[in-house]
Specification:
Length: 324
Amino acid sequence: MRPEVIGTVAVVEVNVHEHIARAMYYVSVHLLFASIVGTAAWVLTTIPGATATTKYWIWVVTALNFIVPTGAIIDKLWAPHLRWATPLGVIGEPIWNITQGRTAAVLAAIWIAGALGMLMRLISRIRKERSEAEVTGGLKKRAVAGFVADGIPVSFGRRHSNPAVSGFIYPQVSLPIGIDRVLDERELNAVLLHELTHARRRDNLIRLLYEGALCALWFHPLIWLAGMRMALYRELSCDESVVQCAHGEALVSALAKLAVPKQGGFLQATASSHLSYRMARLAGPTQTTNRAATLLLTSLFAAVIAAGIFQTIAHTACCFLLKR
């Protein structure tokens, strides 16, 4: 092979390696500061007095922060104004070295295998939900006529043994046939208020986005923690809305009567896993919340997330530490 051809191949290999190293460097810095934000969220949400709804949205933002490349977007839009950015050498050097050998190929293979496994798990779950809906959909429509509450369709059927929310973009509440014979009017209203809160917030869609992020970041322990915290505060915040409507005692008694299922919809499985904690919390002393604590928590987290995004930009924008 002629020397000029060999030189051209070498240049192409170096350029490809540089692009790969740049991408891995950005991902590493992004995950570093997203992890710091996640740790801060875990600490901040232990602050008493703030509402469960506030803590739920903090964990939603924390989870999204792992997958939304805010720093890259800002870098792309405002690159000419970010010349003050400096690379993070403690990450840049190791990344450059790793991407030169076989280690990068091995790590890529492990990541791809894990991501595909998680994706198949998610697809299987969604298909199961859809197949159950198709099998029982006709029966549900013939059994009992539904109604609309606060703009959300409510139907009755045999698909779930407990109340559940189905659908991502256009959610609807499904109540088991005969639930009105198990629960009295106040209990049924309390349960319905809880499920309607899930539906109005599009909690199924939020969880689907999180599950998609989990497919890509399955290796990161904090993304799993974010999912568990989201699941807990998702339920507590809906319970909170019921308590605010003075139906707290009715919800406790309804949960006690319905605490049986092992199968359910997209939200129902995680709801049942926190059932004992929710009942203890609802039946215990009234949880006091105040605006000052909620405002303090929101402000502190906003400062943390802003600092995390800024630091990501500061170490990735317009620059990269190349090994010479």
